[in-house]
Inverse folding.
């Protein structure tokens, strides 16, 4: 029976961030995911590295500061995966903030970043329309401008994994489901099964860590892990729109009538719009956007951009994710008010559970856990190792000029980037926005030729 010091269940950003931290500190680790790595919540974000300007309203100053510090760190470490851009927050006569209040909030945002953000600004109505020509001018009082990061969330997750796997002590399996955990004298025996075949395997682990996000409350009882439900799952959807559907030179932050925030972010020769925040009423694995949710976002856009050319045909594709928000005793459980802080639990002496938090702060969350686990294994923990740049980049870049894709490049991606299915390749390694099931070619290569590589 193979033996590892740590088995991690869940290959999203927290699982991949944790295996990287542990591997860099010489801990033998196996990461297991039921699907592709980064295929659930960690590819369903708003593609932002940000402090969360709306969390200032909840007085979550420590969280915002931590997130801003991490945002600016990753902008330096992974410029090939993320970049800083301008965001505009328009103010109308009916807006709940006065201009002086917005300016104070933007100053605080810059202050919490230790003034590492590019400085904020305030625009007149005329300057705002110049930047966002299709914005509704009626009752417009101007806009605030600030800066945050845009990121390929799936690729950052994957490149953290690739970096970990450069260490000989790190191993990872996608498309394998953990079916049982049995406590033994000095740890656990963990059994997992391929989702494609009946083949099962059992390994031994000193510690088992669950980074299973929104699936945690349902999974742990199945595995006989002592657990009380801790989550308030929140579904969010996004739209990818065709370039030119809305005329905007920067990103726009819209406040809805029901006090939500919707981002409009031009990127990748298209426009990302999101997100919603609703209770989850369906199976969370591979969750989809509903027609009602799509219409909700379209209605918000039509309110703010009444003269745009926006129609349902403007939509390239949609996607959805589930935020694993942590329930707090006595706190307001309105989804927009639930804190984005994380929590670490120890159901027993050999088990850890990491839930909650923001995508942007994953390194801090996993570091908190790693610096507890590593000394328990009798090893020295080195907190600065995760400050180094990622060593293996994706073959196909997300932003900027892309090289012409060839079948040889596809073969290299399949070999070096942990690709199992055609959808893994298209959605997360090539970052193609279209629905893979309706594609005629893959960046110029006939679909049949690419799919033949998986047969």
């Amino acid at each position: 029976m193979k033996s590892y010091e740590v088995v991690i269940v869940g290959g999203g950003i927290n699982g991949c961030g944790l295996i990287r931290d542990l591997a860099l500190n010489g801990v033998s680790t196996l990461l297991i995911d039921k699907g592709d790595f980064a295929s659930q919540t960690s590819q369903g974000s708003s593609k932002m590295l940000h402090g969360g300007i709306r969390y200032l309203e909840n007085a979550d100053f420590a969280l915002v500061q931590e997130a801003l510090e991490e945002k600016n760190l990753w902008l330096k470490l992974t410029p090939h995966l993320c970049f800083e851009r301008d965001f505009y927050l328009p103010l109308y006569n009916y807006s709940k903030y006065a201009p002086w209040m917005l300016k104070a909030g933007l100053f605080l945002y810059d202050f919490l970043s230790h003034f590492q953000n590019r400085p904020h600004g305030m625009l007149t109505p005329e300057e705002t329309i110049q930047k966002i020509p299709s914005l509704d001018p009626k009752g417009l009082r101007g806009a605030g401008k600030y800066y945050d990061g845009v990121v390929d969330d799936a690729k950052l997750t994957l490149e953290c994994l690739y970096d970990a796997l450069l260490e000989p002590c790190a191993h990872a399996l996608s498309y394998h489901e953990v079916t049982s955990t049995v406590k033994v004298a000095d740890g656990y025996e963990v059994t997992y099964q391929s989702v494609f075949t009946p083949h099962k395997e059992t390994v031994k682990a000193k510690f088992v860590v669950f980074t299973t996000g929104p699936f945690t409350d349902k999974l742990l009882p199945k595995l006989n892990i002592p657990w009380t439900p801790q989550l308030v799952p929140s579904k969010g959807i996004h739209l990818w729109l065709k370039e030119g559907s809305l005329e905007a030179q920067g990103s726009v932050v819209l406040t809805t009538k029901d006090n939500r925030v919707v981002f409009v972010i031009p990127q990748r020769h298209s426009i990302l719009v999101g997100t919603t925040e609703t209770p989850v009423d369906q199976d969370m694995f591979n969750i989809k956007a509903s027609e009602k949710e799509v219409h909700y976002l379209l209605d918000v856009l039509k309110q703010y951009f009444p003269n745009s050319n926006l129609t349902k045909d403007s939509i390239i594709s949609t996607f959805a994710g589930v935020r694993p928000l942590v329930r707090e005793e006595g706190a307001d459980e309105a989804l927009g008010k639930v804190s984005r802080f994380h929590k670490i639990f120890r159901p027993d002496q050999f088990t850890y559970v990491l839930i909650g938090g923001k995508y942007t702060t994953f390194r801090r969350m996993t570091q908190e856990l790693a610096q507890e686990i590593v000394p328990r294994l009798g090893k020295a923990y080195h907190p600065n190792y995760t400050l180094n740049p990622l060593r293996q980049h994706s073959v196909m870049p997300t932003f900027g000029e892309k090289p012409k894709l060839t079948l040889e490049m596809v073969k290299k991606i399949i070999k070096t980037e942990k690709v199992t299915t055609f959808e893994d390749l298209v959605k997360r390694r090539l970052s193609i926005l279209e629905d893979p099931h309706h594609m005629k070619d893959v960046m110029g290569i006939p679909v049949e030729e690419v799919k033949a590589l998986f047969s």
